[in-house]
Design brief:
The structure is a homodimer of 379-residue chains.
Chain A lengths: L5 H22 L2 E2 H8 L3 H13 L3 E5 L13 E5 L5 E7 L2 E8 L5 E9 L5 H15 L7 E8 L7 H15 L3 E5 H11 L9 E6 L3 E7 L2 E2 L31 H4 L1 H6 L6 H22 L3 E5 L7 H14 L2 H4 L3 E4 L6 H13 L26
Parallel strand pairs in A: 4-7, 7-8, 9-12, 12-13
Antiparallel strand pairs in A: 1-3, 2-3, 4-5, 5-6, 9-10, 10-11
Helix pairs in contact in A: 1-3, 6-12, 9-10
């Protein structure tokens, strides 16, 4: 008989671990017998799986309350999730500030904070600021931290060397998986999952700011693309005969719908300049809405705050140029999460890409943080 | 203690069924004891799961070969997959013909055939032709058929009434799940999975024919979109100042890159007309490649057969207008599966969307087909 592939066994084991965590998440504290009944796993398989989860401090075992003690033999031991299991952190190393958010297993925000960090502050100092902020928000311990998502500003695609440094520094300090993404794309994910989109399966996000960026959410997940440019709507052609863009192409949307472009055309007080930005955005997004067919189009960034003067021309151009069947059911909304968007998207990314008890879970070795002088001690 | 949700239990059961089928697929014939060891499931859970799979004729139980018979007690019974388990059928109710393909669990094509069916043949007769063809290709029995995928030509989105009729007729006759999709999108999926793309995670397909259509494959799966228009690149704007299209918008790609458009501009022998079709296609796809960032762009349909006269201008316009980072690693290829593309895509869709032993598996009731006079008897 052929031997079972090790990879298949590993996958099976992860599935079983996830089943156990899922049952504990739903039922709270249960005995080993109840766990066997609710998962359908054999006692032998369960024993090995719970042993590993306890070793990684994802699950804790303890005596049942008094009424659970039987007349003879050992008291019944109950298994439950570690209280801190399921915490996730999101960090946005954005323009002008560093922001971090920590959420619990119930997806509630338990801590949020920011440190001013002007654009001219060097890269290493920004990372230090992020570490200080995280130490504070994590209350002195990385126990139960399932992962850290990090949003970076930067050229497209995300800068390899910086991303690697961030992954190394945060991973070493907190002993949890670290994922890095472009922070505009993370804002797109956050808006689709929690914000203006609240559960949208397919969403297109456009961010009209110093540059023009965006993100595509497909089936509830962020689309990265083959080389990490997915969602770069700022470099779709708005005018085939337009001037040359910094990317090398001509007539890119960013030349018409960024803050500097609006400034150059008369400023945000000039209705014509603002309307042109809206029209060009609508023209480019029309093609994307026809071909990607989202249920939701989210407009964010400083220019979105200009309201109807921008959104009116955007929407009328979009409606004139989108395939009617694709327009059916399309909602156009403005972004809602503001400055926390990138950090919240980083948490959403961790929850999607690093499922609990498989890649994540508290590490047994993760005790109080080195270099952190205790809860609330940093400013 | 709160009760377990029925939905969670159902999901758990499906996971366990899939584990059992997966083990049998890898190991062939195994005893119940071996199955318990390889899945980690308890005997009690296994008994219920294998009972259901045997009832649905997905799994068959039989005595082991002679050496398996022990001195006392019952001979050891081995479980294996039904020999026909895992067959899938794909049907393309396309322009000018009906085509069908049947593949086995090893993804080999075991039967393929077509019936001429000119465009003027009424809808009901086309469905009859598909049923006759399928009866023949399935060799008189629907045993082990996991599902039937069907590709339809049609306005966007796929026509609801026709789709419902096809699902009903095929479902009643073969007792298997039926999924319906636009046949150009199915060709896109087939090219990405088996054809020119062979395993591409992210692909954009454009079909230049009587109309201009296409499909997007994201993470290996076909993107349908919120209202079923995903991939409709023919109605993305190629020239903002262009003439009115039948869809109501102006300057759509289809007005420049369809067979009728090339005919009207001088015909496929006219280099200028062909080059314009290529240029306009490249212009529209450039934006899509920037924002969706595929690793593969596949050009299919009759115009793709014109070769470099079309593909040269297409590629140079595409390269001039796509974000450089998105161009990195992008391959441009022509479609390879020809007339079988739609039917093969229909099979790929069934394999992705109706996993074995969950939605599919042979139906116990599926015997020889009513109305089919036996293998090979139809012409």
């Amino acid at each position: 008989m052929p031997r079972t592939e090790p990879t298949a066994l590993t996958l099976l084991r992860r599935t079983h671990e996830a089943q156990v965590v899922d049952v504990l998440r739903r039922l709270g504290a249960v005995s080993r017998g109840e766990l066997a009944r609710h998962t359908g796993l054999s006692r032998t398989a369960l024993s090995s799986i719970t042993g590993a989860l306890i070793g990684r401090a994802v699950v804790v075992a303890g005596p049942a309350p008094a009424e659970g003690v039987r007349g003879r033999g050992r008291p019944v031991e109950l298994l439950r999730l570690h209280p801190a299991t399921g915490r996730c952190a999101g960090v946005d190393l954005g323009r002008g500030r560093v922001r971090a958010v920590v959420a619990n297993a119930a997806h509630q925000i338990v801590a949020s904070g920011a440190r001013a960090c002007p654009p001219e502050v060097p890269w290493e100092r920004r990372t230090d600021a992020a570490l200080e902020l995280l130490d504070e928000l994590l209350d002195g311990s990385a126990a139960g931290l399932e992962g850290i998502g990090v949003g970076l500003v930067g050229p497209v695609p995300a800068p390899g060397e910086r991303a690697a440094t961030v992954v190394r520094l945060l991973g070493e300090r907190y002993g949890a998986p670290v994922l890095v993404e472009n922070n505009t794309r993370l804002a797109a994910l956050a808006e689709a999952v929690h914000g203006a989109g609240a559960g949208a399966r397919h969403a297109v996000y456009v961010h009209l700011s110093h540059g023009v960026g965006g993100g595509l959410v497909v089936d509830g997940r962020l689309l990265g693309g083959a080389s990490g440019t997915a969602g770069e709507v700022g470099h779709m052609t708005a005018d085939p005969g337009g001037p040359r863009c910094r990317c090398g192409n001509h007539g890119c949307l960013e030349l018409y719908a960024s803050l500097p472009a609006v400034e150059a055309a008369g400023g945000p007080g000039d209705d014509g300049a603002v309307a042109r930005a809206g029209r060009m955005t609508g023209r480019v997004l029309a093609g994307l809405c026809t071909a990607v067919n989202p249920e939701l189009l989210i407009v964010g960034g400083e220019l979105a705050a200009l309201g109807a003067r921008l959104l009116g021309p955007l929407e009328s151009e979009l409606r004139a140029r989108t395939l009617p069947a694709a327009l059916r059911g399309l909602r156009i909304v403005t972004a809602r999460l503001g400055d926390e968007g990138g950090a919240l998207g980083a948490i959403a990314l961790i929850r999607q890409e690093a499922p609990p008890a498989v890649n994540g879970g508290a590490r047994a070795a993760a005790g109080p943080l080195a270099g952190c002088t205790g809860p609330g001690s940093s400013g």
